C-alpha cells in the first residue's frame, strides 16, 4: 500500500466533490441530527462552493467516510467545525473531507431552498444553544435537570 494513498474518508469525499462539481447532486439523508431543518428520509441538493460560511448547511465525510449534513459554525487552525441543529458539535473536519453546500431540501414531494435567512437563523440558534449549555454546565444546572427528568420518568435530558 502506498503511503500517499488517501484514507477512505478523504477518498469518498473526493469522489462526491467531483460529482457535485460536474452538476449539483441530490443525496439521500437519514437521521434526526438536523431537527426540523432536514428531516430523516429527505434528499438534499449539494452544490459546489468555495468555503463554508457561518450558518450554511454543508455535506462532508466524517472520519469513517460516512456522509454527514450539518451546519457550519467556524474555521480554526485549518479545520472546519460543524454541528447538527439537534446535535452536539462534530469533531474538527479537514478541508479534504468537505463535499459541498446544501442548497435545497426535498421530502415527500415538497422542495424548498436553504437560503440566507435559514443560514442566519440556524447559525444564531446553534450559538445561543451552545452558550446556554455552557452556562448551565458552569452553574451545575445540567445535572439538576438530568436528575429531575429521571425522577419524573422522562428519560434523559437533552
Describe this structure in words.
- By secondary structure, the chain is of the alpha+beta class.
- It has a domain at about 10-115: Umud Fragment, subunit A (Ribbon), CATH 2.10.109.10.
- It is built from three helices and eight strands; from the N terminus they run αββββββββαα.
- The chain has helices at about 10-20, 115-140, 140-150, and strands spanning about 25-30, 40-45, 55-60, 65-75, 80-85, 95, 100-105, 110-115.
- Strands 1, 2, 3, 4, 5, 6, 7 and 8 form an eight-stranded antiparallel β-sheet that branches.
* Helix-strand makeup class: alpha+beta
- Give me the CATH fold name of the domain at 8-114: Umud Fragment, subunit A
- In round numbers, the mean pLDDT is 84
The biggest sheet, with number of strands, parallel, antiparallel or mixed sense and barrel status, is:
8 strands, antiparallel
- If classified by CATH, what would the architecture of the domain at 8-114 be? Ribbon
Q: Which H/E pattern describes the elements? A: HEEEEEEEEHH
Cα end-to-end separation: 44 Å
Number of helical runs? 3
The unreliable regions are 1-5
**Apparent shape:** globular
CATH homologous superfamily caption of the domain at 8-114: Umud Fragment, subunit A
Helical content (DSSP H or I, runs of 4+): 25-40%
What's the total count of β strands? 8
Output the radius of gyration.
17 Å
CATH top level assignment of the domain at 8-114: Mainly Beta
Per DSSP, what share of the residues sits in E-state strands of 2 or more residues? Answer: 25-35%
